[in-house]
Amino acid sequence: MAEQDCIFCKIVDKELPSDIVYEDDEILAFKDVNPVAPIHILIIPKKHIPTLTDMGQEDAELIGRIHLAAGKIAESLGVYDRGFRLVNNCKDEGGQVVYHLHFHFLAGKKFKGVG
Ligand code: 5GP
Ligand code: ZN
Prior knowledge:
The protein has helices spanning about 5-10, 60-75, 90-95; strands at about 20-25, 25-30, 40-45, 85, 105.
């Protein structure tokens, strides 16, 4: 269910524009407006879940499907073999700014470390 004032819900509802790279019934992936890597995609559930810790047992399969979508996106963007990084920022100290669960799909450069 769309949450009022949530920018990602508005992107899901196409009330706000985005550059979509993958979409199915439950998942949307679109280019990050402020990329920090040559390829920077946000993969989100269409359902409004604020943070990773707000996931319920009923969301476990959905989160698994988001990871499967990451593989499909890697294939379609030509980085399947080169690899990519998938990141979730959870809450304040995790660096989360937008409180609609999302995974950063980062690729096109060599990452080192995790800091
Ligand atoms: P967070 O810090 O919450 O993990 O990441 C939020 C991300 O959303 C940031 O990388 C930011 O650039 C991106 N973002 C914020 N607003 C918009 C928007 O309206 N459109 C798109 N495509 N990305 C956005
Ligand atoms: Zn939302």
